[in-house]
């Protein structure tokens, strides 16, 4: 299926008190090629294998395929991944009729907070909460696959 | 799980009349890195996603994880693969208490026939049928992932 998402930096922790769900996510990549990525994810007490294609030119739409796998398989496959495992806490916040997923990164990406909202079409409007900062939709350096190879702690070095 | 396999070239078509099963296989790779490959396969009327690790030093043992996926998903994911899709016919032959899988390659790898036998341990013996030629266990150039990038028709060029 094709996913349509917009992505923003987050400039305060104000979103935390509005959050209805908080989940620890640990993930690695079996590859980080920009035309296709294969991700292994531990999300709470579930495992997932996710394959994503290249983004559309405007960065909004991207092919995504996912299957649930056991925690045991996910752990085994994360062992096989490229170095640079991503560790983060995901908060979910309802803003009017949209759900924002806000990732607070840990480890080598600590200090980075990114919010994503999924849309049904490219032109769909949505309420902008005050804690949203600059839009970074389509900026490859904020892809988790890139953050695993070139983490936030190295930026500006 | 860990798979233990030995791989041989095949020097005649004599195996065909001993075969009890014949299946068309079309497969692509989401990556072909030697430490980890991700394969999408159409095998007869089924689809599979398979992840393999690096081989042991002797080339015999290799981590392998597989899940069945729908034909529709397999077709969608093959579209996403690196160029160099592998097309072959797999014959299965029972030789005493072992089953040999013999792949007759088509397309850019036409002329290449490879047999594999799966073993329960590294030292397990087995009957060698007369149509088996040189052993190529652990020789990376005969990996399907490598054949997709450097096919048989280019060898010796």
UniProtKB/TrEMBL annotation, chains A, B:
<dbReference type="InterPro" id="IPR012042">
    <property type="entry name" value="NeuTTM/CthTTM-like"/>
</dbReference>
<protein>
    <submittedName>
        <fullName>CYTH domain-containing protein</fullName>
    </submittedName>
</protein>
<dbReference type="InterPro" id="IPR033469">
    <property type="entry name" value="CYTH-like_dom_sf"/>
</dbReference>
<feature type="domain" description="CYTH">
    <location>
        <begin position="1"/>
        <end position="149"/>
    </location>
</feature>
<dbReference type="Pfam" id="PF01928">
    <property type="entry name" value="CYTH"/>
</dbReference>
<dbReference type="InterPro" id="IPR023577">
    <property type="entry name" value="CYTH_domain"/>
</dbReference>
